[in-house]
Design a protein that fits this description.
Layout lengths: L5 H21 L10 E7 L2 E5 L8 E5 L4 E7 L3 E6 L11 E8 L1 E4 L7 E2 L16 E4 L16 E2 L4 H6 L2 E2 L5 E4 L5 H10 L6 E8 L3 H14 L5 E6 L5 H19 L4 E7 L1 H14 L13 H9 L3 E2 L8 E9 L8 H9 L2 E4 L2 H5 L12 E2 L8 H6 L3 H15 L7 H17 L9 H12 L11 H15 L1 H10 L4 H19 L1
Parallel strand pairs: 8-14, 12-17, 12-18, 13-14, 13-15, 15-17
Antiparallel strand pairs: 1-2, 1-6, 2-5, 3-4, 3-6, 4-5, 7-9, 10-11, 16-17, 18-19
Helix pairs in contact: 3-4, 5-6, 7-8, 11-12, 14-16, 15-16
């Protein structure tokens, strides 16, 4: 082992001190302040934080082990922070730092086809998301001057909706009804039907069971165009904070496409659970309760969310954002607090009835209580021409059917009306994952209007409807293509459809 010489040993401390002095001399002098707080308590997805006097409302806070939360309430001495990560990892005494930013979500084309949580973190195992930008989840709704009239249709592929309660691009249509009677099925059929359109779909699951969300995603992947869909998932097992921000994240993701002149559709499944999460968070952060223990701002919460759905003017790019929020009722009670709030905010509602569902009428849409406040202004002209009196005919049939229970009807005209109503009801009963094209819907309504279906046995209506698309492609392809292209029905197309329908009906009558 070699030893250092006496001369070298004497000079080595001098060289080391010289270098250290040089580095200290190059270091800028000054004060550096760091603001941090501490967790006072953490439970049920809420952390009470002391310190941080300059934190703003809704500012993102970072905890000691990387967990995130946002400031929900600002008291004199404490901050009520809603956690966006599991509360089990946050402990009393942990350091907390402010970020100076509000909650943001990644946006961009790279999100298409992905399954994400409300913060944009991938849940599908396909790697990280490459975002075009990060936008705040709570953005202002377009002003009145930035909006355009809602005139373009959203074809759902569901005959009941397209014929009687037409939806438009930029509209907010509430889907409401009791538990497990087909609300999500209507929304999924609408998403699936957009595989041949330019609509980009965002499905937001709030507080749903993981198995239910998995089935919904699998259905879209099997029957629709998943490459133009985005799934934002906050199941019942996720922290309440993630469930709370999920609808806002979904709208922000969709607004990226709307603001670029494209068209987007957002399904929120469902806002009743979102309201319950808001109530839970508000009570835990000691906000004063109101009716049914909901805080007073629950109406404003959903109003500022749904007002972001709009059809933009040409000066703003002409894009649109259509919203289909879902709400759940208890025993069909539409006068409950959250249902009445949402009905007053939206542009119409599709009300599903439990009795119709159990009677086998699916989708179980109640014709009498459902409404679209945009209505025929967005309906395709071809469909409007053949469905103008359809709702009135069906309402009269339901009334006559009720009276026939008290005794026999001998009048021939009434019998014919009842027979036509039965065939209309059979037409409106449509299986899931079987959307109809616009040409198919026009043909069915035209056949009913002209009385061609009166001779078809009611039990064979379903089979005839299933055979119709292929029959039109084979025997009236030009008329069907013209309807799909122009959305109008001229006399030549009408005659071709009637001739083709008469031949199809003859097969089923025989």
């Amino acid at each position: 082992m070699t030893s250092m010489s006496d001369d070298t040993a004497d000079r080595w401390p001098d060289r080391w001190l010289g270098r250290a002095s040089a580095r200290l001399g190059a270091t800028p002098l000054g004060t550096e302040a760091e603001e941090f707080g501490r967790v006072q308590s953490a439970a049920d997805g809420i952390a009470l934080v002391t310190g941080l006097p300059h934190v703003r409302l809704n500012e993102v806070l970072r905890f000691a082990r990387g967990e995130l939360g946002f400031a929900q309430t600002l008291e004199r001495d404490t901050i009520g922070c809603v956690l966006l990560d599991p509360a089990e990892t946050v402990e009393a005494g942990d350091l907390v730092r402010g970020s100076g930013a509000v909650v943001e979500v990644p946006v961009g084309e790279a999100l298409l086809g992905r399954v994400l949580d409300p913060l944009g973190r991938p849940l599908d195992g396909h790697g990280p998301v490459v975002a075009a930008a990060h936008w705040p989840i709570d953005r202002p709704a377009p002003s009145i001057i930035e909006r355009e009239l809602v005139t373009e249709p959203v074809q759902t592929g569901i005959l009941t909706v397209d014929a009687l309660f037409a939806l438009g691009r930029g509209q907010r249509e509430l889907i409401i009804g009791d538990r497990a009677i087909g609300k999500t099925a209507i929304a999924l059929d609408t998403i699936i039907n957009q595989k041949s359109t330019d609509l980009i779909c965002v499905y937001v699951a709030v507080g749903q069971k993981t198995a239910s969300v998995a089935r919904a995603i699998a259905a879209v992947r099997r029957h629709g165009a998943p490459e133009r869909c985005i799934f934002v998932v906050a199941t019942a097992a996720t922290p309440p904070g993630l469930q709370w921000i999920a609808p806002f994240s979904g709208f922000t993701i969709a607004e990226y496409f709307r603001d670029r002149g494209q068209h987007a559709l957002v399904v929120v499944d469902d806002l009743t659970k979102h309201a319950a999460t808001h109530r839970e968070i508000s009570l835990l952060t000691h906000l004063p309760p109101g009716r049914e223990a909901f805080p007073g701002d629950v109406f404003y919460l959903h109003a500022r969310l749904l007002e972001r759905a709009a059809k933009l003017s040409a000066a703003k790019g002409g894009g649109s954002l259509t919203a289909l929020p879902i709400a759940e009722t208890d025993a069909g009670n539409l006068s409950a607090y959250i249902p009445t709030n949402l009905i007053s905010i939206t542009d119409g509602q599709l009300v599903l009835d439990l009795k119709l569902f159990h009677a086998g009428q699916k989708p179980a849409i109640d014709i009498g209580t459902s409404v679209s406040r945009v209505g025929g202004k967005t309906q395709a002209p071809a469909l409007r021409a053949v469905t103008g009196t359809l709702r009135l005919v069906y309402a009269q049939f339901l009334e006559l059917e009720m009276f026939t229970r008290f005794g026999g009807i001998t009048d021939a005209r009434v019998k014919d009306q009842l027979a036509r109503g039965e065939r209309l009801r059979a037409l409106l009963a449509q299986p899931q994952f079987a959307p109809l094209r616009l040409a198919d819907e026009v043909a069915l309504a035209l056949a009913l209007q002209e009385g061609l279906l009166d001779a078809v046995p009611t039990e064979r209506i379903v089979a005839m409807r299933a055979a119709l698309p292929a029959w039109l492609d084979a025997h009236a392809a030009a008329a069907a293509a013209a309807i799909e292209a122009t959305r109008a029905l001229d006399e030549a197309g009408r005659a071709a459809l009637l001739q083709s329908l008469a031949a199809l009906v003859a097969k089923f009558v025989a």
